[in-house]
Design brief:
The chain contains 9 helices and 6 strands, in the order H-H-E-H-H-E-E-H-E-H-H-E-E-H-H. By secondary structure, the chain is an alpha+beta fold.
């Protein structure tokens, strides 16, 4: 007897005219397959930078989500920010692991990301980009420095490491000016807060903690990182 998955596959056979390689049994057209690959590669799709890809995602959101649900991934599409990204579904009930393991941000990375999220929301609807400089990032982390635990040299190292991680995730993007960055709209979707009013309490809690902070990693982050940056 055929399984449910096999029955579904038999009900949707690939179209010969859409075959892109020997043995191709897929039913999606080329542009839809390309959209899937880009979503899976991550960390997100910026519709302003890739308008054709963005249009494909908007036109085929239902089909994309149906496919991604098969591998326990959720598609989030924000039409206002023009950002689309994937996140692992909560699959504890079916006793399986998500296809993409999420790596938690460290304390300083989380502090910086949360403060930038507040700035991003305050500028929402203004049509202006939100920027952050290295000096500004250092100042943010200095405000949350625990007395006696971090000297100036270590603060500089933490600032550079936090900026590098957010750059790696493309939550901030470089500009033409050295040490100046633009905050991506994807940052708002990467943080699990319904309202920025929740953030001050979380920041206060972080000030009392020195461990890993928050599981914010978008699915599809395939960038290499050193072992020092990833805690067990």
């Amino acid at each position: 007897m055929s399984t449910t998955f096999e029955a579904a596959a038999a009900a949707r056979p690939g179209s010969p005219e859409r075959a892109l390689f020997d043995g191709d049994t897929g039913s999606f057209p080329l542009e839809l397959r390309q959209a899937l690959v880009r979503l899976l590669r991550g960390p997100y799709i910026d519709g302003a930078a890739e308008p054709a890809l963005w249009t494909t995602i908007l036109n085929h959101t239902v089909s994309l989500q149906q496919y991604l649900s098969e591998i326990f991934l959720l598609l989030t599409v924000d039409p206002d920010r023009k950002i689309a990204l994937l996140s692992p579904a909560g699959v504890d009930a079916v006793h399986t692991q998500p296809i993409v393991a999420r790596k938690p941000l460290r304390r300083e990375e989380t502090l910086l990301a949360l403060r930038l999220r507040v700035l991003l929301d305050r500028h929402a609807g203004t049509g202006t980009d939100v920027g952050i400089s290295r000096a500004g990032a250092r100042e943010i982390l200095a405000e949350h420095r625990q007395p006696g635990s971090v000297d100036d040299k270590r603060l500089d190292e933490q600032t550079d490491a936090a900026l590098a991680r957010l750059l790696n995730l493309k939550l901030i993007v470089p500009t033409e000016l050295a040490g100046e960055y633009r905050v991506s709209n994807a940052l708002a979707l990467a943080l699990p807060f319904d309202s920025i009013d929740q953030i001050p309490a979380y920041l206060a809690a972080l000030d009392k903690d020195t461990g890993d902070a928050l599981d914010l990693e978008p699915a599809g982050d395939d960038q290499e990182e050193s072992a020092e940056e990833i805690l067990p």
